Amino acid sequence: MKDKEVAEIIQEETRRQNQGIELIASENYPSVDVREAQGSILTAKYAEGYPGRRYYGGCVYIDEIENLAIERAKSLFHVAFANVQPHSGSQANFAAYHALLKKGAKILSLDLNDGGHLTHGSPVSFSSDWYQFVHYGLDETSHLDYEGIEKKLYEENPDLFLAGYSAYPYAIDFRRMREILDRYQEKTGKRCYFLVDMAHIAGIVAAGLCQNPCDYADVVTSTTHKTLRGPRGGILLTNQEELSKKINKSVFPYTQGGPLEHIIAAKAVAFQEDLQPSFVTYMKKVLENTKACNDALFSFGAKVSSTDNHLFLVNVKESYGLTGREAENLLSLADITVNKNMIHGDKEKPKDTSGLRIGFAAATSRGCTKEDAIAIASLIDSILKGGEKVAEEKKEEVHHLTSSWKRIEELRYLED
Question: Is 406 one of the catalytic residues?
Answer without folding.
Answer: no
